[in-house]
Write a structure and sequence with these properties.
The protein has about 110 residues and is α+β, with helices and mostly antiparallel strands. The protein has 5 helices and 4 strands, in the order βααββααβα. The longest helix has 11 residues.
Length: about 110
Amino acid sequence: MAITVNIYYSGEGQSARRFAEEMLSGGIVEAIRAEEGNLRYEYFCPLETKGTVLLIDSWKDQRALDLHHASPMMAKIAALREKYGLHMRVERYVSDEAGIPEADRAFLRP
């Protein structure tokens, strides 16, 4: 059962965007994506919430997420969050093993 965590980073001006850019340019994102059990680690900028960056962070299971949280990578992330003075709002989702119901498939365009 996959776990997806949406983290909304916000701060003054463009600080959230600069944080995400430094995560990418510093190789941290690449290292996280290489961790065992990582399914997705990707940043987005919401159109309606200026100054916010959304991280979609997805893991194979709770064990993989726990290992990530216990890794030295977390100290690097925490230091960058502090550097840019960011605040966070978090949403957590667990995958539906049954998949997308047939009734919902009618609304999808492959």
